[in-house]
Design goal:
The complex is a heterodimer of chains A (428) and B (294). By secondary structure, chain A is an alpha/beta fold. Chain A has 15 helices and 16 strands. The longest helix of chain A is centred in the middle third of the chain and has 33 residues. The chains are: A alpha/beta (428), B alpha/beta (294). Bound molecules: thiamine diphosphate, iron/sulfur cluster and magnesium ion. Magnesium ion (MG) binds next to loops of chain B. The site of magnesium ion (MG) has 7 residues of chain B, from loops.
Chain lengths: 428, 294
């Protein structure tokens, strides 16, 4: 007789029907004033129930975890992530957060411990960077396959050899196929806000989230950040259903042997969950705006409507590109910006809609898939494949290993793009 | 000589492994899991890394285990177990046992880092290594637990293993954990005493269980219990326990020569008398050391 029946499949189906049943509607919270609804609201708005603080990206990340009342933290130090865990351990010492803090002997064990904690229903958190994230590679797959809603912050840092501790997205783009959602943040505010939304989204679709920020440009740079009230964050994260966990009263297995047919079903369900996540990211973003005044989507369009030429960016380079677009607009150039927030799930339709009909497009990558090009470039190219009115595409590899990408660099990119250049451009 | 040694299995305890599991006939590993779980009871969460045990549970959607089970990667059993404990603490569920069952490969070799980390932090987990002295799931390759002289699929009989079996108990004791012991399903009273003790202690507890493997060791599947007895009586696998670092022997059966144990298994068939004498010497040395430490 089979006793503890494995329930993974059941829960995936239950999940998709649950989301359908709820129509992906997130309970609205009354009594909170909503701020401006436009996409740039986050740059100027504020809601009454938040305070404003000067925070580094790492402090914003840690504060995000505190506000989410994470229950288990397991981490291992690596530059430039270290201050995230230090801030968290301080928060625990001061009694601002009640969490189990595990100082494990490697990132590999950090994620393994998070898996164990998450599997018994605890909200688990870790943060890492570069060598740490790549060391976790095998477990990234396992976390996603076991459908555990862990949130991890990764500070984008170059991967060796040679040693380099500065900003480069290679560590996280190399984890693209592991089944984790990936959110690339432009500002420290976005790091804090995305951490909160990531738990909400992950705990709904049962896939883990990687919240990504650039080393030093964000992680160690102070910016003013609106800090929401914990009470409201708790309300925002309230779950209406209980996800399946390891429970002695209702035994089930996670990750048991599955034959080809079942394996196929599991993988496909993960893909479906990613697709559901894509809708949910927008809806959670809207709900977040209603409560906290800042709106988020998988992509953000900036000055795109009448643009002929478009910059496509992810991460902190976006801020530089905004300024360049502003100055070029003053000169009367019809140029815009498409910021991509999610590498996974990749917002294919949104990218198509934003770029189709444009004349030229430069995708800027602070990463290089050696032998392939920038990863966002190849993703955008694939998304546009087969569409009508595809713009001329240029891939720009820029800022590897922390090399500064300045406004005049992007001006140079623009001039090159205006000559209808296609293929790869090396900025550096 | 009787081929089957009779043992009594206490009836009042519930079985937490059902029939229909996928272990080979005579598998020592599944017996270890079965008996440990009978004593620990059903308020237990277990984790299992890649090993024969992964397969033994059976294929989705069926499970032979009546307990919540987290399958994990081969090197993470201790870290996952520690995480489960942290999660349970966060949820204020403090009356649940957390047990990791791992093979020798997942313990002595690839999982040693996570195990050492957990032991150093004295994580509140029970770690049980079922030791079949090779990588069985992948088809009998050598591990650092494979004993001197054994042939495996990567150490053939004319190129047998010339290194000694790693002393994992000493490694664990070097971490100053509260409890470590060796167990063997051929001595159920001893096993029961140790599992009970382990279950009652807080912190990292380590049990090393001899797990004879008929296809891997090359003996007939009805002789698993007998082979376990020979391992203990020949002192190849002494039954001992250590609370913190104080070692003591828990069984002192009349000594038999190691050749009786070795000759029952094909993996040692190629050994010459000199080699066997060498193994005997090693076994005697180790025994004296344990006595000295007692
Ligand atoms: C990282 C990694 N490397 C290799 C394997 C393949 N593998 C699966 S089980 C196993 C052997 C495990 O041996 P042991 O822990 O002694 O357990 P046994 O199979 O003997 O029961 C190996 C090498 C794996 N699953 N993961
Ligand atoms: S190969 Fe050995 S350890 Fe594995 S199931 Fe068979 S008897 Fe048990
Ligand atoms: Mg083995």
């Amino acid at each position: 007789m089979a006793a503890g029946t494995v329930c993974l499949c059941v829960r995936i189906y239950a999940l998709s029907s649950k989301i359908k049943r709820q129509g992906l509607i997130i309970p609205t919270v009354k009594g909170v004033e909503s701020a401006h609804m436009n996409a740039n609201a986050k740059r100027s708005s504020c809601v009454p129930s938040s305070s404003r603080k000067l925070l580094t990206g790492n402090e914003a990340a840690a504060l995000g975890a505190v506000l989410c009342s994470v229950e288990v933290i397991a981490a291992y130090p690596i530059t430039p992530q270290t201050t995230i865990v230090e801030t968290l351990s301080e928060a625990i010492a001061k009694g601002e957060l009640r969490a189990q803090f595990m100082e494990v002997e490697s990132e590999h064990s950090a994620l393994a411990a998070c898996m164990g904690a998450s599997a018994v229903g605890a909200r688990a958190y870790t943060a890492t960077s570069s060598q740490g994230l790549t060391l976790m590679h095998e477990l990234l797959f396992w976390t996603a396959g076991a459908r555990l809603p862990i949130v991890m912050v990764n500070v984008n840092r170059a991967v060796g050899a040679p040693w380099n501790i500065w900003a480069d997205q290679l560590d996280s783009v190399a984890q693209r196929d592991t089944g984790w959602m990936q959110f690339y943040c432009e500002t420290n505010q976005e790091v804090l806000d995305t951490t909160i939304q990531a738990y909400r989204i992950s705990e709904n679709v049962l896939l883990p989230s990687l919240v990504v920020m650039d080393a030093f440009y964000l992680s160690h740079t102070w910016e003013p950040v609106y800090v929401p009230e914990k009470r409201l964050v708790t309300q925002f994260l309230k779950q209406s259903y209980k996800r399946p966990i390891l429970d002695v009263n209702r035994p089930c297995s996670f990750g048991a042997l599955a034959g080809p047919d079942n394996y196929f079903i599991f993988r496909r369900s993960m893909h479906m969950a990613m697709e559901e996540a894509l809708c949910l990211i927008t809806q959670v973003g809207t709900e977040f705006e209603r409560m906290f005044g800042r709106r988020y989507e998988p992509v953000e369009e900036y000055q795109l409507k009448d643009a002929h030429s478009v910059f496509v960016t992810a991460g902190s380079i976006t801020g530089t590109a905004r300024n360049v677009v502003d100055s070029l607009r003053v000169e009367g150039e019809r140029v815009g910006l498409l910021k991509i927030r999610n590498l996974r799930p990749f917002p294919i339709e949104r990218v198509r809609k934003a770029l189709m009909g444009k004349k030229r497009c430069a995708v800027i990558d602070r990463n290089l898939s050696v032998g392939g090009g920038g990863v966002f470039y190849t993703e955008v190219k694939a998304a546009l494949c087969g569409c009508k009115k595809v713009p001329k595409l240029m891939g720009v590899v820029a800022g590897l290993g922390g090399k500064d990408v300045k406004e005049h660099d992007l001006m140079k990119v623009y001039r090159t793009l205006e000559r209808d250049t296609q293929g790869l451009l090396w900025l550096g | 000589m009787a081929r089957v040694t009779q043992v009594t299995i206490p009836r009042q305890m519930t079985e937490l492994i059902s029939s229909g599991h996928k272990a080979c006939p005579g598998c020592g590993g599944i017996l270890v899991v079965r008996h440990v779980l009978r004593i620990i009871g059903s308020k237990t969460i277990i984790t299992v890394p890649a090993s024969c045990l992964t397969v033994m549970e059976g294929e989705y959607p069926r499970s032979a285990f009546k307990l919540p089970l987290f399958h994990t990667t081969i090197e993470t059993a201790a870290a996952v177990a520690a995480g489960i404990r942290a999660g349970l603490r966060a949820k204020q569920q403090n009356d649940i046992h957390v047990v990791a069952f791992a093979g020798d490969g997942g313990t002595y070799d690839i999982g040693l880092q996570a195990l050492s980390g957990a032991a150093e932090r004295n994580e509140d987990i029970l770690y049980v290594c079922y030791d079949n002295e090779a990588y069985m799931n992948t088809g009998l390759q050598r591990s650092s637990s494979t004993p001197y002289g054994a042939s495996t699929s990567t150490t053939s009989s004319d190129n047998f293993k010339t290194q000694q079996k790693k002393d994992i108990i000493q490694i664990m004791l070097a971490h100053n954990i509260p409890y470590a012991a060796t167990i063997c399903v051929s001595y159920l009273d001893d096993l029961k005493m140790k599992v009970k003790k382990a279950a009652s202690i807080e912190g990292t507890r380590f049990l090393l269980a001899l797990a004879p493997c008929p296809p891997g060791w090359g003996y007939s599947s009805d002789r698993t219990i007998e082979l376990g007895r020979l391992a203990v009586r020949s002192r190849v696998f002494p039954l001992l326990e250590a609370e913190h670092d104080k070692i003591r022997l828990t069984k002192r059966p009349a000594k038999i020569p190691v050749s009786r144990y070795l000759s029952m298994q094909n993996r040692f068939r190629h050994l010459t008398d000199q080699e066997i004498a060498r193994i005997q010497e090693n076994v005697d040395d180790k025994w004296r050391n344990i006595f000295k430490a007692e």
